[in-house]
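ENTRY TYPE: paired fold submission
RECORD: A
CONTENT: sequence, then structure tokens
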Amino acid sequence: RQVQLPEVGVEDVLVREHEVVFAQLEREQIKERTQMGLAERAKNGMWHGSGITPIGYDYDPASNQLVVNEYEAMQIREAFDLFVNQNYAFTKIVKTFRNKGYSHKHGVWAHSSKLRYILSNKTYIGRINWNGEDYPGKHDPIIPSSLFEAAQKKLAEKDWKLTDKPAKSPFDATQLLSCLLYTSDAADDKA
């Protein structure tokens, strides 16, 4: 049994193409207006509401502002202190937090990579960043600017590290030696 497709005239094709063009134009305009609105919120010191609220803050939709979450803010302050004043590596901070049973709105402290983002996030000194521009925020800072600047200086140093463990080569001396011996034995067998 053969399915009959409706006949489509030239006018129908033209109408459909116009609808697609106008839909795309409308989508672009919505995107542009949204970006302008988010930029305006940042200029006014309000959180842009990306859906991912920074650890240490909760979003209050009634006031359109970030409010300090004291339990998480304590962890943020401790992370900055351990990194700047105690010279803890990222993995040691994470391990310390896990041992203390700390958690946050996004889960538990599982990865040290999150710490680099936290330690360089100006939200914690009362700033709002949008598209590379910083604006004074309406929210309360969690840490003093001096501590934040000290963390930035330390992060910029060439010798900061993610872990306390020395870097491991993919091949240690015994692996290299056994590889060389195997290669030389294989060459002797062929000779």
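RECORD: B
CONTENT: sequence, then structure tokens
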Amino acid sequence: TMTVTDKNIELAKGASNNAAADGGGITIDAGSDTDKTWVWSNSRNAWTSSEFIQVAAGKRFGFADDTNTYIDRPAADAIAFTNGGNESLRINSDGDVIIGSGGVWSYPKPLNVQGSSGLILSLSNFDTTTYAADTFAGIELKLKTGNTGTTDATCEIRGLKENGTNGNSARALTFYTGLSGGSNKERLRIT
């Protein structure tokens, strides 16, 4: 056991820059097992660890210069992301994702999104190579339809570009459904 009465341990003292301190750190000699290390990596501009890092209960990962932005564990088997002092995203123990409501939701679903005044959930397709007609961003709704035969089926809602002219922003909203055993077809278009 080494006891240090001073408050600070200096490694690589006298190193002229980060590159000279590269590889400096702490190594635990694990005998016949793999050594455990906490090492400065100049190429990554970061500390690296050979092992998992676990934070004690009630503690969080944060930033020294932005104390109201951090990642923590608000409850067992849950993780939360807070920025600007407000919880913006939580993943609960059942895998449900809650965005924008402070981590609470009256009737939670697997994905919950709430805005402070109005809400737009944005899905983008920024294909700039073709500007082709029918380039789209969409939502696929997937269903489990049985355990024999066709076991999965989908419906889709697409926002799409109606033409292939660069700069022409004519667009439409389309809805796709399918019959049993068949592929989806466009059933409704709003232009």
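NOTES ON RECORD B: Helices lie at 18-21. The first strand starts at residue 25 and ends at 28.
STATUS: closed
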